[in-house]
Amino acid sequence: MTEHHHDDSHYVAPTIEANYAPLRRVALLSAVVGTVAFLALGIANASMNAAHGGVRDLFLTYQSGFVFWSLVPIGAMTLMLIGYLCSTSWALVFRRVFQAAMRTWPLMFVLFLPVAASALFMGHDSSFWWAVPAGEFARDHANGDPVVTHEVAHRQGLYLNGLFFLLRAVIIFGVFGLLMRAMLKWAPAAEDEGNAANKSKLKGLGGPGVLVWALLFTVAMTDWVMSVEPAWSSSMFPVVAAMDCFLVTMAFSALVFYSLVGENQTALTIVKDKFRIDIGSLMYAFTMIWAYASFGQYMLIWAGNIPEEIGYYRKRLNGGWEFVAYALMAIHWLLPFVIFLFREVKTNPKSMKAMSIMLLAICATDVIWWIVPCVPHAEDTQFFHLLMAIAAIAMVGGIWGLAFLGQLRKANLLPKKDTAFLANWGHH
Amino acid sequence: MSAPTHTPETWGLLAEFDTADALIAATRRAREAGYTKMDGYSPYPIGEVADELGFPRSEIGAIMFTGGLVGATMGFLMLTWVSWVEYPLNIAGKPYFSWSMFIPITWELLVLTASVSGVVGLLALCGLPMPYHPLFNVPGFARATKDGFFLAIEAEDPRFSPTTTKDFLSGLADVKSVEEVPA
Amino acid sequence: MATVSAPSTVGEQAEPEFFTDDEHLIGGKQNLVTIGEKIGNVCLGEVPIPKGWWIMFLSGFTLLQALVLGLAWLFYMGVGVWGINSPVFWGVAIVNFVWWIGIGHAGTLISAILLLMHQKWRTSLNRFAESMTLFAVMCAGIFPLIHMGRPWLAYWLFPFPNNMAVWPQFRSPLCWDAFAVSTYFSVSLLFWYIGLIPDFAYLRDHAKNKIQQMVYGMLAMGWRGSAIHWRRYEKLYLILAGIGTPLVFSVHTIVSFDFAVSIVPLWHATIFPPFFVAGAIFAGFAMVIWLAVPIRHWYGMKDLITTTHLDVCAKIMLGTGLIVSYGYFSEVWMAFYGQSVYEWDTTLQRMFGPYGWSYWLLILTNTIIPQLCWMKKFRTNELLLCLVAGSVHIGMWFERYVIIVTLTRDHLPSSWGRYAPTLWDYAAMFGSLGLFLTLFALFMRFLPMLSITEMRELLPRSAGGRDGHAVMENAK
């Protein structure tokens, strides 16, 4: 062969000089400001509205913060599994980000504990309507929501009760943890030494891993999100949530990666335009599938108009929350739909960073919109609750982000051997 | 098309090459030599040839975008007008303006009008169908759909001259043959 | 075929080893000329008609007569000749409609989505898969039409000013269906025809007689392979692929709306749109496998449709099958979680009611048997793969059957009933298969089964091709 030929077996990825300090500052700021704001707003709300679920709001808004950030390690795990299964380029570019996100999984369990406490101990102050014993619940709602009959509450109580909820969460955290651990254990030999046995093990894990994810993610989203809404169930919802999960993970990874790489030409020559376009196109696809799934769910429930379902949208399209819904349509679908049509956006790290920030913000808004409106607040307090939820997102994100960055800086941004595929792409 | 005269006019000169790369290089040389009225012919698309010909971007994208936008807008307005104004029906108590239920047909009309305008646009811009073309008079031109790569410089080109252009083409790297194309 | 003799000044260096193909997408020592001959000579009558072709054509043509008879009797007597009656008014005709249109989707998927995803292996399959789409949509379109009872009034579905001063009911998914299916057919036809134009030009230029030259010449519309034309052509092809992809999704989504917009328990499921789409792709790939195997054998196309292609198709079939199975899980899960009395009881009826056998048959054929594709042997052995694909065909038919027999037991026990198709249901059903086989056989004989142009692009540079780097990289 000519000198153009690159032998992958001798390839060693260059060390990428990355400055982690700015990201760390952002995370620290987010943690401090978020915590202060969350506590200040939450305590103010709790003292002003003690009789109207002030404490419950604290748990409810915290829950949106937890759910939003839990999507990143879960998404990292799933996209990594898909990446191994289909040998994709984007899973190579973002490998270190995904791996660092997966290493934060134990912390995520700690961050889950307030949600568990809400389900187990908070009773009437819980973010979960079903944390109240069935008998009391029916009495409380006798003049309220006509949908939540005693029968439904009673029957769901078999599934939706604190201990069983905790057990399911432990299984979800445990099984996802095992999958992550297996990948993190096999990866170094595979990507730094080219160990063929480990590579095939990782590829083999891909298919069954994604299957396990699909089932457990459905359970997780049913428990952590869907169950805040009395009597509501939608089989499309896990699909909507999965798209947000993937989109959040990709946007977060792109933000971190492009921020760290910046103008570093060594890295940008490896992560060629083609790969950057692929990353952008994938994010584009996720926004489109999100819009497709969200629209389908909305249209079908709106058309059906049956009592068990329609309450979900009645709450979310009234009392001020409709503006959030308009924002979702505009920023989660329309803007990316138009902007991502241009290749130049996808190849330019700066514009991709801007797009990632926008998408992270709107996905966070989406998660808030799923969870917080489940209890009808007085109309003039909705904005206050939105602020609380945003503060919760900042708080959880800051705390989690610090741990994430601590993991990320441990290794070179590009895997030692596997990067050969990116570096040598297009050469013959 | 051809003038009412019996003296055979020349439509242009046709050079054949063996490889796509040779055709790309030849097109570049011809452009550098100042020729403008020319075209490359190949059995499969070679984007670089179009680049060298100075046709970096086609009009199809804009045509389809416009077609789709017009179709979708008209479609949505039609659905709204029929359901709200012209023939309002109470269906399951739904509002006359049920925008979410208009989306499916709007989308289908977008795709349909965009596709049809793209295809019509392609045919119109390329002047197809065109059953007769002077190039078909050259027997070897059948290879343009097989394994031949051709560059034709047309007589309309201001720099065209039957002799010097022929010499120029014959001097190109990897040229297999140069033939005159009767009008 | 010319070899690269002098060092070229443009582009990348040709590879010194000839005819290497790491991805095993083109076998043998093919080049620009042999590709054209291999594919084109079948159309030009240079290849003796294989025995298998006659079997396919004649059996298809025979079955087609059943369709003709079935429809004639139906139009004469009315839809009463079918087994539909209260409470099941959507019978086998709707099952067949959804089954066929689902099969069609893999054609567009292979052509459009895989093009966007730079999947080079699609090149060998896209042409016959697109043809499969067209013919399957034709078969599908028959059923809602004849199901109307008065099919000659079908045009009432479309909006046009008329002297009755009525307009369609645009909030009905059945009306959306008319738009979706007709758009899908039209756009697929355009996409297919645009892809065929350069191949027609090849056939025109290498025709063996006057008739061929005239017919293919007219179809080619004077295509001469101009670089300017190619540029527009590629852009059109790319954008058609770009909008064809969401089109596939939308069509089967709208088909799923036919069921899901209602409030019938287990029909009104928000998962239906993606679940139906996945099912369509699942069924379509099973049909692609069924069609690829005879083409490989009868026409010696093993160099062009390689074992790698079968392997990939099997993997996609497995993957989409798992998504469909997730749909089954999701239905049961949400019925259990939601604890709506109607949803849960209908789920129990579906599993253990009088038609419970069809549900378990569905699980067996669609969820359990396709798992065999985890084993490489089942993905690469033609016979075993065809058997698995056959199981998928049965499964996907029963999937829709299970949905329609849900109607036998609704909220009100006094209105429960049974449903059984009649001979005339089956006449239309198997007759449509005859139509499909007949059309496909004619396609194999008279049109290029594989895209000559795109196969040439896929050839290595050393064999005159472009390594498959064309449409995506150069469409501007």
TrEMBL record, chain A:
Membrane in keyword set: yes
Recorded superkingdom: Bacteria
Residues annotated as transmembrane: 26-46, 66-93, 105-123, 163-184, 205-225, 237-261, 282-303, 323-342, 354-372, 384-406
UniProt entry keywords in alphabetical sequence: Membrane, Transmembrane, Transmembrane helix
Keyword Membrane carried by entry: yes
Record's protein name: Quinol:cytochrome C oxidoreductase
Organism field: Limnoglobus roseus
Automatic annotation (TrEMBL), chain B:
Coiled coil (residue ranges): none
Pfam families given in the database record: ActD
Keywords: Membrane, Transmembrane, Transmembrane helix
UniProt entry tagged with the keyword Transmembrane: yes
Lineage: superkingdom: Bacteria
Membrane spanning stretches: 62-84, 96-125
Keyword Transmembrane helix tagged: yes
PANTHER family linked: LIPOPROTEIN-RELATED, QUINOL:CYTOCHROME C OXIDOREDUCTASE MEMBRANE PROTEIN
Protein name: DUF3341 domain-containing protein
Organism, as annotated: Limnoglobus roseus
UniProtKB/TrEMBL annotation, chain C:
UniProtKB keywords: Cell membrane, Membrane, Transmembrane, Transmembrane helix
Keyword Membrane assigned: yes
InterPro entries, per database record: NrfD-like
Membrane topology: Multi-pass membrane protein
Segments crossing the lipid bilayer: 53-76, 88-115, 135-158, 178-203, 236-255, 275-295, 316-337, 357-374, 383-403, 423-447
Short name of one Pfam family: NrfD
GO cellular component, one term: plasma membrane
Localisation: Cell membrane
Record-stated family: Belongs to the NrfD family.
PANTHER family (alphabetical): POLYSULPHIDE REDUCTASE NRFD, PTHR43044
Protein name, entry field: Hydrogenase
Lineage of producing organism: Bacteria, Pseudomonadati, Planctomycetota, Planctomycetia, Gemmatales
